[in-house]
Amino acid sequence: MERPGGVPAGPEVWAYVLDGHERLRIALAELTEGGERGPSRLPDWTRAHVLSHLEGIGRALTRQARYALKGELVEVYDGGRPARDAGIEAGAVRSAAELTAAVTATLAEAEAVWGSVGDADWSRPVRYRDGDLLGALHCWWRELEVHTADADLATCSAAWPRELCLHLFEFLAPRAPAGLTLVESDGPVRHTFGTGGGPVVRGRLTDLTAWLAGRRPHQRLEGRLPELGPWP
After folding, report:
1. Fold of 158-232
2. Under the GO molecular function aspect, what terms does this record hold (predicted)?
């Protein structure tokens, strides 16, 4: 039985993040005025909401890195979840051009800060989940890729790299009911949560991952789909 491998190290994750940045820039180049008001793949959120959230979480996680490199700790969001939610709503009223400029600036800021993280820095503590810099970068990788797909522009979950899918299997394990087995129809992965004996779901790796992340798969999955728990 094959299970997903270990989580990539910092420099490897950063390389995947940079690739995701470039795909998001390409997608933003196709966003025309008025398109930001179109629906995203998230209920009740427009593309503008998704892009506003990407800007906010990108800046928040980059701030975690900036302070950690100085040996200091700072909250992810000043004001917590209420401030985060208010920021998304306030930012979502902007035009396509304004949102594109804001997200592009966030990516540039992230590259300047995260690009300066050295091999000895990944274990520096951060406030994000009381973890370390590597965990914060993993979070940005997840948020970047999942919400780029949510924006429903020129990219989607079918473009998620294999390494991200395997990482999401591990991160999203708390959502899965005990015994669930996910079987890749176009590859070798067979991943069981717990000891097995539960439902078996088959499909392409990206579609299995999209479903586990609470997103609609692009192609139909085979098997009984159990109810999932909340995002961890």
Report:
1. Nonspecific Lipid-transfer Protein; Chain A (3.30.1050)
2. isomerase activity
- Inform me whether the pLDDT recorded for 1 exceeds 70: no
Distance from CA of residue 29 to its chain's centroid? 20
- pTM of the model as a whole: 0.94
**Which CATH fold would you assign to the domain 10-155?**
Four Helix Bundle (Hemerythrin (Met), subunit A) (1.20.120)
**Cβ neighbourhood burial of 74 (10 Å; 0-12, 13-18, 19+):** middle
Phi (first) and psi of residue 181, to 5 degrees: -125, 130
**Nearest residue to 148 (alpha-carbon basis) of 68, 47, 226:** 47
Q: Which of 45, 3, 54 is nearest to 24 (CA)?
A: 54
Q: List, in sequence order, the alpha helices (H) in 29-95.
A: 47-69, 80-91
Percent of the chain residues past pLDDT 70, beyond the cut: 97
pLDDT digits (tens, 9 = 90+) for 98-119: 999 999 999 999 999 999 999 9
